[in-house]
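Long-time lurker, first post. I've been practising inverse folding by hand and with some scripts of my own, and I keep getting stuck on stretches where the structure tokens seem ambiguous. Below is the full token string for one chain I'm working on. Before anyone asks, I'm not after the true native sequence, just a reasonable design that respects the backbone. If someone could post their per-position residues I'd love to compare against what I wrote down in my notebook.
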């Protein structure tokens, strides 16, 4: 996959992935860990590389000035609905227990379906 640095608006940078990546039929949930604070974040996206770049370049307002972020876990899903359900579960009370197990050293990648 080809990754290049592009710009969004004045002085805002974003990683751009190849056109082929944008046409993939996979959705990802991802877990990031802040290298500055050690806190974690769970999200979902269709383009993992671009989304990580947005987080690390301060384009995502809610995470601005809290990075840099490292990708510690990802899971792939065939549909947006599956990815959203998994993201919501990991943000729930029961899901936080599983999230803690993942952050404590589970394998880094998992494909579903």
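-- Answer (accepted) --
I ran through it position by position. Result:
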């Amino acid at each position: 996959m080809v990754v290049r640095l592009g710009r969004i608006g004045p002085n805002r940078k974003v990683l751009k992935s190849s056109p082929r990546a944008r046409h993939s039929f996979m959705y990802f949930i991802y877990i990031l860990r802040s290298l500055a604070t050690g806190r974690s974040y769970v999200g979902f996206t269709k383009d993992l590389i671009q989304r990580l770049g947005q987080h690390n370049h301060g384009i995502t307002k809610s995470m601005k000035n809290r990075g840099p972020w490292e990708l510690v876990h990802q899971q792939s899903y065939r549909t947006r609905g599956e990815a959203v359900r998994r993201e919501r579960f990991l943000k729930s009370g029961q899901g936080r227990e599983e999230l803690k197990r993942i952050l404590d050293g589970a394998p880094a990648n998992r494909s579903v379906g």
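A couple of notes from the structure itself: The chain has one domain: 3-111. The helical segments are 19-22, 48-56, 80-90, 93-103. Happy to go over any region you disagree with.
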